[in-house]
Each structure stands twice: as C-alpha cells, then as structure tokens.
Design a protein that fits this description.
about 110 residues; about 80% helix
Length: about 110
C-alpha cells in the first residue's frame, strides 16, 4: 500500500512538472519537489499508521517502519524523479536548440 502511494505521488510529480513547464513557471519544479519532500516527511506517514488497540500493548515499531519507509523510499523516489526529469528536459531542450540552429543555418545559406 505504501509503495503504491509513493508511485502515485511520483506520477503526479511528473505530471505537475509537465504542466508547469508548459506554462513556464520559473521556480515551479523546485516548489513541486520541495512540496513532495515535505509530504513524504510530514504529511503522508500518519495516514498509514495502524490504529492503536486499547486492549493490547501498542508497540511503536510499525510507526517507525512506516515513517522510515516514507523518508527513505519516498524521499529517494522524489529526488530521483526530479533529477531524471531535469536531465531529460535539458537533453531534449539542447536537442531542439541544436536542430533549430541547423535549420536556421540551412535557410540562411539559401
């Protein structure tokens, strides 16, 4: 369940990157990345904590495991998605610029 949630958040992160790039927000990707990290560190883990049972001894180990899973796997996934998106975006942007420069030179020679 936790991994499904992390994958869903990563997909939403990429979709938000695409939308923000489409509208040319200057610091949009950084804001989405920091919001995703804050979500993985502070917002999402409490929703997955088990309900305490008043008739039994409640151990804190499941809470610790869930929190660490969100911090390590979720934070790592957010960072990897962010870095891969930036690298792909730079490569495609450079490729488009290179192709347009070649076309401009070709048209100038004509």
């Amino acid at each position: 369940m936790i991994l499904n949630w992390i994958v869903l958040v990563s997909v939403i992160q990429v979709l938000l990157y695409l939308v923000l790039d489409r509208f040319n927000f200057k610091y949009g990707r950084l804001f989405v990345f920091l919001a995703t990290l804050a979500g993985h560190f502070f917002v999402f883990p409490p929703y997955f904590y088990p309900e305490p049972d008043p008739n039994r001894i409640n151990c804190g180990m499941p809470v610790l495991g869930i929190t660490l899973a969100f911090w390590i796997i979720g934070g790592g996934a957010a960072a990897v998605v962010h870095l891969i998106y930036i690298l792909i975006r730079k490569k495609t942007k450079a490729k488009v610029l290179t192709e347009s420069n070649v076309l401009d030179e070709f048209h100038n020679k004509l």
